[in-house]
Amino acid sequence: MNGVLTLAGLTIREAMRKKVFIASLLIAAIFVFWALVPMPVRPGMMTGGDLAHTRDFISKLFAWLGCGMIKFFSSVLAVTLAAGSISAEVDKGVLSVVVPKPISRVSIYFGKWLGLLTILGASVILWSTLLILGIWHKTGHFHPHILLGLLATCLFPLLFLTLTLCFSSFASFALSAGLSLIAAGVALAEDILFNLGRMLDSTVLDTISRVVGYIVPLGKMNHWITRGLGDAGMDMSAFAPGRPGESAIATNYADLAYIIGYIVVSTIIGVLVFQKRDL
Q1: CA dist list (Å): 90 to 17, 113, 172, 274
Q2: Is residue 152 within 8 Å of 72, Cβ to Cβ?
Q3: How far is CA 263 from CA 32, 46, 76, 173, 194, in A?
Q4: Element (H or E) spanning 113, and its range?
Q5: What does the pLDDT look like over 240-271, one tens digit per residue?
Q6: φ and ψ at 50, to 5 degrees?
Q7: In which element (H, E) is residue 21 found?
Q8: Cα 160 to chain center, whole Å?
Q9: 217, 229 in Cβ contact below 8 A?
Q10: At a CB cut-off of 8 Å and minimum separation 6, what does 5 contact?
């Protein structure tokens, strides 16, 4: 355990040395700028209802958009940080110096994972806080379900960190980042195929959609964000014919268990590959 914490601390210090925090602060500045840009909320604005109804609607809309922004930025940051965390240090000969010391490769792997997760967690907490304060500043409303939505949003950086670190255990920076982006691209097809399957009444497209959802479970995570946000949530499944948000409503704890299992299996594969790799 001491080895894991030691490597986590070194990983954080290395990220600080590379000024990674600047990217996090720049993204935070986007939320601050958005919060400070004047946007008077008037009765009937976007909804046709009274002022209270309009503020409630806009606060929910911002909660949904804000979760989407955090999901995107945290995923990109996770891929960027993890892509070269192992392969780059192998190429530089750094790990060949560390490995002979009384620190196992498993400790090195989990130390890097924990260090990068700490950086991502701090960034997500900062952005989430600014989002909540910004919504309150603009509308005077706090949508309680945003906390559940933000909690579900954390699945994205966690999965992309784990998946990209797994790829980095055997691939270069460019290839590990590229593989993660390809995985994201494949996952985007799930809800698109789901919608097409419902519109065309095609069981084939519906089946392919479900298969894609198991290959990379980003769609399932999106549905959990929607479920967490409650009536403020919406994902692409909401645009399919039939009951709005059907996929999100049907999301259950078995899907969450699959997501967690996917992350665990990716971690195990990454550790096994790293243990066999020549340094």
Answers
A1: 19, 16, 10, 11
A2: no
A3: 32, 40, 17, 20, 24
A4: helix 105-139
A5: 444 444 545 467 788 899 999 999 999 999 99
A6: -75, 180
A7: helix 20-36
A8: 7
A9: no
A10: 111, 114
Number of domains in the chain: 1
Give CA torsion, residues 132, 147, 162, 120, to 10 deg.
30
Residue whose C-alpha is closest to residue 240's, from 276, 194, 273:
194
What type of residue is 47?
Answer: T
Q: How far apart are CA 3 and CA 6, in angstroms?
A: 5
CA proximity to 82, closest of 1, 187, 5, 11: 11
CA–CA separation, 108 vs 205, rounded Å? 43
Q: Name, in order, each residue with C-beta under 8 angstroms of 83's C-beta and a sequence gap of 6 or more.
A: 164, 167, 168, 173, 174, 176, 177, 180
Burial class from Cβ neighbours inside 10 Å (0-12, 13-18, 19+) for residue 79 reads: buried
Range of the domain at 182: 2-276
Contact 67, 146 (CB under 8 A): yes
Contacts of 92 (CB under 8 A, 6+ apart): none
pTM score: 0.86
State the Cα–Cα distance between residues 180 and 184, nearest whole angstrom: 6
Amino acid, single-letter form, for residue 202: S
Q: Which amino acid is residue 23, in one-letter code?
A: A
162-219 pLDDT tens trace: 999 999 988 888 899 999 999 888 888 777 777 777 778 788 887 888 888 888 898 8
CA distance 278 to 269: 16
> Residue 243 to residues 174, 247, 248: CA-CA distances in angstroms?
42, 9, 11
Question: Which amino acid is present at 9?
Answer: G
